[in-house]
Structure formats: C-alpha cells, structure tokens
Amino acid sequence: MTTAKDIMTTEVITLSPETDIVQAAKVLLDNGINGAPVVDGKGGLLGILCQSDLVVQQKRLPMPTIFTLLDSYITFTSSKQMEKQVRKIAALTVAEAMTPNPVTIKPDTELETIAGLMVDNHFHTLPVVAEGRLVGVIGKKDVLKTLLYAPKGH
Description:
Elements: H1 4-7, H2 21-31, E1 35-39, E2 45-50, H3 51-55, E3 66-69, E4 72-75, H4 79-89, H5 94-97, E5 99-100, H6 111-121, E6 125-130, E7 133-139, H7 140-148
Antiparallel strand pairs: 1-2, 2-5, 3-4, 6-7
C-alpha cells in the first residue's frame, strides 16, 4: 500500500511567520506551488499559507447583514467571522495570513486517506509531520503522479 512517505516531497519550501506577505506570494508563484508550511526555527509546524489566504487580501470586506424582527436586531455575520476576515485582509506578515494548526498527516498515512482528505476538504497541500517536526509535504500533483505508476487494470 502506498503511504505518505512514498510520495511526499522532502525538500520542502517553507516560510517563517515573520516573512512579509508580498515576499511570501512571490515564493509561492516563483516555485509554482499552491501553499507552503510555516515553521519555527526548529522545524515545528505553525501553520500553512496557501494562495487562497493571499487572494483574501484582494477581497472587499462584506458589511454584516442586519434586519429587524420585533424591535430586535439580528445579524447574519458573526463578529468572530468578521474579525477573522479583517485580520486576513489587513495581513502584513505570513503569521497574520496563514491558517494556523493545519490538518497534518503522518509518514505512514495511506494514499486512500490522503486522497480522501484532499477531496472532502478541498486541501491542495498536506504537511507530513513526524515527532512534532515537518518532514515533508504532499500536494495534489504528488497524488496524481501515483496514477502514472499504478498497475494497469487497477
């Protein structure tokens, strides 16, 4: 059975939380990658920064939808959600724009589980962590490559 360690990229392009957001965008674009893990000085995973986290910066802040019902105000946009959007839109560093505590997999996670996570949750990049440290990443391209080497009739 194919596992994460069989298909993961071990030479990982990473970002530090202090990296300027414009520089981070350049790193993703120059390397043709959808996302990069954000690590501390010891290789510990802090979060992940994806292109979608950067695209948010081009978004206008939606105004909360409010209506009155029996003299009570009801809002459809939670203040927590609004706060999160404001932080991402105004982000200057990777730490402010990244998704903290991303879903991770272990080196022995099976291909079927990896594919399921990517499809069900719309993940493009999954960090591979062992003993609390980043050891690799798996992108959708890594999973697709397994099709090229799958036995015929499989």
